[in-house]
Amino acid sequence: MIKKLLLNLYIWPLFFLVTLVALLLIPIIFTVNLLFFRKPVNSLFRIGVRVYGWVLVRLIPFFAPVRLHDRSGGRPDTGIYVANHNSSVDPYCFGVIPGEFAFFTSWPFNIPVYNWIMKQAEYLNTGWGWQTLYEKSVLLLKNSCSLIIWPEGHRSRTGELTKFENGAFRLACETGYPVVPVCITGTHRLMAPGQRFLTPSKLSVTILPPHYPPKGRSDRQSIQQLKEQVKKTFDDELRRQEHD
């Protein structure tokens, strides 16, 4: 109980402080970029969000930072990253993975300030419908921006892996980009759905070998097979970690 109290007294004030500093830095970063780098605004925001996540999960929790394990055997330059989803902390964990990413999400689009950041970064609102999501996804992938999709659709209430939806795997089959599984562990204990306070927990992010969709095939059977292969990869990894 004392560890939990100290953790929350430490983390939450720093979380709000880092968030405030990040917001105050936006106009300065914009000005520097405009004068010297001329990087596209959407890309600048996506990189900024990743750095923000890195600070929150690697720098601030110096006593128990999120650990990254790359067991992919070589990540593709651009891909469709799929991750298990147990907590609202999960998106921040992607800060430890180098690269430029765009999230498939929904709830941040309903929150002031977050809504603006989501739009500037050209993140994808899952409420838009398939055709719009597909067109915007293709554009991002062609511009070397990887995608992050939660195939379960929602956070697991039990901490166990739940049913996968077809979206990520249909997108992979129709675009030809590989699916990269990312196994996140420890976040359900840290902050399960419905919780407001953090519980001490060790977090890890494991990048698993990519799955390549069958060339020229986007039929229902191919989508289902790819989905089952990826889900088995998650099941195997979670069982492996249980026995370590």
Q: What does this protein structure show overall?
A:
By secondary structure, the chain is α/β, with parallel strands linked by helices. It has one domain: Glycerol-3-phosphate (1)-acyltransferase. It is built from 8 helices and 7 strands. It has a 7-stranded mixed sheet with strand order 1-7-6-2-5-3-4, with helices on both faces. Strand 3, helix 4 and strand 4 form a beta-alpha-beta unit. Helix 1 packs antiparallel against helix 2 and helix 6 crosses helix 8. The longest helix has 36 residues. The protein is globular. The two termini are 27 Å apart.
Write the layout of secondary structure elements.
Elements: H1 2-37, H2 41-59, E1 67-70, E2 80-83, H3 90-93, E3 101-105, H4 114-120, E4 124-125, H5 130-142, E5 146-149, H6 167-175, E6 179-185, H7 187-190, E7 204-207, H8 220-243
Parallel strand pairs: 1-7, 2-5, 2-6, 3-4, 3-5
Antiparallel strand pairs: 6-7
Helix pairs in contact: 1-2, 6-8
